[in-house]
Amino acid sequence: MQNLDSDSEDELPPGWVEKSTDDGNVYFVNSCTNKIQWTHPRTGRKKVIPEDLPFGWTKTVDETGKTLYIQQETGNKTYVDPRLAFATEEKKHVNDFRQRFDSSTTAFQVLHGIDLSGKFALITGCNAGIGYETAKSLARHGCNILMANRNMEATKKAMSDIVKETNASEDNLKSIHLDLASLESVKKCAMTVKTIFSDYLDILILNAAVFGLPYTETVDKLETTFQVNYLAHLYFTLLLEPLLKKGTRVIFVSSESHRFASLKNVFNQQNVAMTRDSYSSMMAYNNSKLYMVMVAKILSEEWRDKQICVNSLHPGNMVYSNLSKSWWLFRLLFFIVRPFTKSMQQAAATTVYTAVASELENVTGLYFNNCFYCAPSELSRDEDLAWEVFTLSLKIIEERMGSDGIQKYLDKCITRLNGEKQ
Are 26 and 87 in contact (CB under 8 A)? Predict the structure, then answer.
C-alpha cells in the first residue's frame, strides 16, 4: 500500500489563483503579472474538474452577468467554482491517480459533493451490514438502488430505514428477490432486472456472502459457500451483460482472506467446490473470495474494449457485521475485538469509492483495499489457474442451467484449451 501523498506541492505560490472553464478544465492566473497558463505553477501538471457541479450546488448569474454559485441547502453564494475543490491532475495513464483516502475514511467522506441523481445501481446482499451501508450511502446522494436479496421482509425494513435515515426518495429504492442458493432464482432475477432497467446499469455491486457454515448443499447440489459467495454471482453477472455499457462499474466484493486460500485437491472430479470429505468452512470462504478476484480480472480483460470496468476489493479489516453470525466462534471473537473494528461507514468506504470515484474512470482489473489499489495474492494472479477455475465454473453452470447467456464464454474456454494442447 502506498503512502498518502502530501498536498503541500498542490499549494499555489503567492499571487497565483486557480480558475475553471465550463467544460471542466482548470487554468492558473498570476494576479501580479496577469500571466495565464494551463499547468500548475508548482507541479507543472494540468488539472481537470468534473463536468457536473457538486451535489446540492446550482449555477446562475448575478445582475452584472458574472457567474454565481449557490449551495441550495445553506443558501451560501460564491463566485468560486465549487468544482475546484474536486480538481484532480490530468492522467497520463489510466491508472495514474493518487491515494486520497485511507483506512479511517468513511463512505460519507468519499461521497462528499458527489451527485448520483440519474444513476442506477444494483446491489446484492444489502438488507444489513456493509451492503446496507453501501446502499444507504449511495441513496443519500440520489442514486437509484435496486436491492437484490433473499429475505424480502428484511429488505422492506431496510428500505424504510434508508428513507428515514437519509431522506432519500422512496421512488429511488426498489427491491427484487434473489436467492443465490438457487441458480434458477438467479436466472429469474436477471430476467426481471432486464425489464426494470431496460437501458443499462451504472453500477453492479456483488456483495452478498455467507460465512462459517457447516457443509451443506444448495438445491443445485453444490456446496453452499461456493455457490452463494461466488458461482451464483458469476452467473448473475454474465446474464446481466446486456445491461452493462461503456462506463458501467462492476464490483466483486472479495476479502483479504483470499490470500489464505488453498486449491489443493479442489479440482477433484472437475469440481472447484470443496467436497464433504475435505470441507473446512474457513477454507471454503477463502476459496470463494479467491475465485471472486480471479473472475473479476478475467472479465475486466474480456470487457476492456467495451469500457466496462470490473474490479474486486476487500471492504475492511476486522469489520463487525452480521456475516459472523453463522459461526459461534467468530461471534465470540468479534464480540471481544469489536472496539477495535471498523465502523460500517468505514467498511463501506472502499466499495463506494470503487463505485463512484471520478479518478477511477476507465480503471479496470484492479484489487482495492482501504480506498486504494494493491496487489492481490500471487495465486489470484496465476492466469492459467484463473482460466481453469473460470472454465470449470461455466461447465458447472451449463450442466444445471444450460448455456444461455454463457455460450460465448464456453466457446472461448474451449478455444483456449485447444490452443494450449497444440
Answer: yes
C-alpha cell at 147: 436491492
Per-residue pLDDT tens for 371-402? 999 999 999 999 999 999 999 999 999 999 99
- Kindly write down the DSSP assignment for every residue of 52-68, as one continuous string: SPPTTEEEEE-TTS-EE
Q: What is the mean pLDDT of the chain?
A: 88
Q: Delineate the domains of the chain, giving CATH numbers in brackets.
A: 14-89 (no CATH), 114-413 (3.40.50.720)
DSSP string over 82-129? GGGGG-EEPPSSTT-------TT--HHHHTTT---TT-EEEEES-SSH
What pTM, to 2 d.p., does this model score? Answer: 0.81
Q: Which residues are catalytic?
A: 285
Asked whether residue 245 carries a pLDDT value surpassing 90, the answer given is yes
Instruction: State yes or no: pLDDT of 340 exceeds 50.
Output: no
Q: Is 408 helix (H, G, I), strand (E, B) or coil?
A: helix
351, three cell numbers = 466499495
With vertex at residue 50, the alpha carbon angle to CA 131 and CA 171, rounded to the nearest 5 degrees, is 40
